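Hi everyone,

Forwarding the result from last night's run.
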Amino acid sequence: MSVDECITVYENLGKEVFGKRLIGGQFGRIIRGITSSPFYDIEALQAQVKKVLKEKGIALDEVFVESNNPICKV
């Protein structure tokens, strides 16, 4: 993916994952911080990443770092 394409995908993905208001507002954020609970739904993030991989024809178990080249393929 080009950098511009990555930015566009991230912006769309971000709206789905991080755009929802947290229950409890600021108080809820404090409670989540104290209890080490996630602020956002990890399942929503996983679903969005899987969606992008599927759209790009990339297997979900694809290895993104080659053993002979430590540079990320993505």
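The CA atoms of residues 31 and 37 lie 8 Å apart.

Cheers,
N.
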